[in-house]
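Thread: Newbie trying to understand structure tokens

Hi all, I'm a second-year student working on a class project, and my supervisor (Dr. K.) asked me to get a predicted structure for one chain before our next meeting. I've only ever worked with sequences, so writing a 3D structure as a token string is new to me. If someone could post the tokens and maybe explain what I'm looking at, I'd be very grateful. Here's the chain:
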Amino acid sequence: MSAQTELQKLLYDTLRATPAIMLLVGGVYDRVPSTPYGTTNAYISFGPSDVVDDSADCIWSGSHSFQLDVWSKAVGQVEAKTIVDLIYRTLHEAELVLSENALAEIRVDFRRVFPDSDPLITHGVVSVAASIEEPE
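---
Reply by user tm_fold:
Sure, no problem. This is what the structure looks like when written as tokens:
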């Protein structure tokens, strides 16, 4: 499994396994279904991701970044801010493990909450950065 794919799976599994997050969101999605909220007012989706090669000598590695988007239809920004902060507490410098690649570090570098272009939605953005060493 590629490092990028394995990291996305790890993020997905970690968020889904966090009760405080799942209490507030209808799901965590790579491809958002037509009814993503379920019985809640919010959900999380994967946004853009990229990899920058960080290899040196005989070590293959990359700096990976993922954007996690929070979408909330609750009135105001409090719910989106709460979910964004829970994602931060769950992932920032967490001791997570990949099965095929080596996760050297994971950080949440950026968090933002703002009104969406749809005036009934609040949008949160969480930028996750990870350094991963890959086997040759």
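A couple of things are worth pointing out once you decode it. Strands lie at 28-29, 42-53, 60-72, 102-115, 122-134. The chain is about 25% helix and 40% strand. Feel free to ask follow-ups in this thread.
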